[in-house]
Design a protein that fits this description.
Elements lengths: L2 H13 L14 E3 H4 L5 H15 L4 H25 L11 E4 L7 E4 L11 H12 L6 H22 L16 H12 L11 H4 L23 H6 L6 H4 L11 H9 L48
Antiparallel strand pairs: 1-2, 2-3
Length: 312
């Protein structure tokens, strides 16, 4: 593994378990995403979603599918954002991005071999998983895009908080003291079952398990108007300042929220949520339909459907 990638992954892991990306998948239950999202992988993914529904206590496949996807997206986006801060664009080739995705086991990610690339391309990975999930459960595409966008902004808030003293970071943005940030930060801290593996198991965590908010969603393919942070750097954009030295503001400080805004404005994520600082999504992840669940701070809904407001 390239030393820069190794250092970036190590520093990402310091942020929290959501940001930990394994590099040596071992044992049973590991699958390359390319295999998991193929037609041959559908029976396994279906079993995983059924198991999630059972553990979440919901009879609705779409609810389990939505929350599974958000957890997956969090595991994708958290290390990607953290490594970008170090000037490393992770190459998320679906044949090398692995998931331990098996009934009765927590969701864990690994990248092997881990290496850098010249352009950030996460959306193809996310869209492939979304398509695979939708072949099994009746969950809208735009709901999953909203999950990805929410996970992206949640991961960014966690990362911004962690690096609050970083010269280039603008600190937390949006409802930092509100439910959205609490959910993002609490999820990153309490979400994964195993810190050294970055495991995430919302079903086992119950109402607080929506930690899936750590991260998600992404840039895109060239024909969708790909977001390329490296290209942005050439024009003086801050997000890739990390490559030149994120610790020195006058050398092109790393601008986390410029990265987030760029990602949210392009490809599959475009229109999935409103602008910052609130980043309110335009869909609901359905967490309120889980026993003990509720609405997220960035939810499109003002109240749980069927419940009267305090004023009404």
């Amino acid at each position: 593994m390239d030393s820069a990638v190794s250092v970036a992954l190590r520093r990402a892991a310091e942020v929290g378990p959501f940001f930990t990306l394994g590099v040596r998948p071992g044992g049973e239950g590991w699958y390359a995403q390319a295999d998991l999202t193929s037609s041959d992988g559908q029976p396994l993914l279906s079993a995983v979603l059924t198991d999630y529904a059972r553990r979440l206590g919901t009879p609705e496949p779409r609810v389990a599918a939505s929350l599974f996807y958000q957890g997956y997206a969090a595991l994708v986006w958290s290390p990607v954002l953290a490594c970008l801060r170090e000037g490393v664009l992770l190459d998320l080739d679906p044949t090398r991005f692995h998931l331990r995705c098996h009934p009765n086991q927590s969701l864990t990610a690994a990248l092997t071999p881990a290496r850098a690339t010249g352009s950030l391309a996460v959306t193809p990975l996310l869209e492939a998983m979304a398509a695979a999930v939708r072949r099994i459960a009746p969950v809208p595409d735009r709901l999953l895009a909203g999950n990805a966008a929410s996970a992206l902004t949640g991961a960014a808030r966690v990362l911004a908080t962690h690096h609050a003293n970083h010269p280039g970071a603008r600190g937390t943005r949006g409802p930092a003291a509100g439910a959205a940030t609490d959910r993002a930060e609490g999820g990153a801290a309490a979400g994964p079952d195993t810190a050294d593996e970055g495991a995430y198991d919302p079903a086992a965590e119950g109402a607080t398990g929506r930690a899936e908010r750590g991260a998600a969603a992404g840039p895109n393919t060239a024909d969708e108007g790909a977001y390329d942070p490296a290209a942005e750097a050439a024009t003086g954009r801050a997000e890739r300042g990390a490559a030149a030295g994120p610790d020195t503001a006058d050398e092109g400080a790393y601008d986390l929220w410029a990265v987030v805004d760029g990602l949210l404005a392009s490809g599959w994520l475009a229109g999935a949520c409103g602008a910052g600082p609130a980043y309110r999504r335009r869909s609901c992840c359905l967490y309120y339909r889980v026993p003990g669940g509720g609405l997220c701070g960035d939810c499109a809904l003002d109240r749980v459907p069927g419940k009267r407001s305090a004023a009404g």
